């Protein structure tokens, strides 16, 4: 594989720490990057993604789609300083558990109006 087809990517987490840099082929998909992030997630973080769909990658102000390749996400204008692309990682935990927990908590608390009109 030619050297110019390889891209160095570093993943910046919510607390400013980094995962990487790792070297990827330009044909690697965003989904593959997310799987690597989950497998290499640092121990001891308060927020931990459990699945690929909980991770969003942001590069140059755009949320990257899972089916896009690294080559399609590269900067259209010139080279990046230092040769390493920094992608920001946003973790959005699944909402299904949160909604169910709220329903359970809210159901016993039915508020009954005790107003009296005189």
Characterise the protein shown here:
With 118 residues, the chain is an alpha+beta fold. The protein has one domain: Phosphatidylinositol 3-kinase Catalytic Subunit, Chain A, domain 1 (Ubiquitin-like (UB roll), Roll), CATH 3.10.20. It is built from 3 helices and 5 strands. It is found in: Cell membrane. This is Membrane-anchored ubiquitin-fold protein. May serve as docking site to facilitate the association of other proteins to the plasma membrane. Pfam families: Rad60-SLD_2 (PF13881).
Q: Helix fraction?
A: 10-25%
User: How much is the radius of gyration in Å?
Assistant: 21 Å
List low-confidence stretches.
none
Q: Strand share of the residues? A: 25-35%
Count every beta strand, where a strand is a DSSP E run of 2 or more residues. 5
Shape: elongated
Full CATH superfamily name:
Phosphatidylinositol 3-kinase Catalytic Subunit, Chain A, domain 1
Distance between the termini: 85 Å
Number of structural domains:
1
CATH-level-2 architecture: Roll
Mean pLDDT, to the nearest integer, reads 79
Figure out the total of helices: 3
- Widest β-sheet, arrangement of strands: 2-1-5-3-4
Characterize the largest beta sheet: strand count, sense, and whether it forms a barrel: 5 strands, mixed
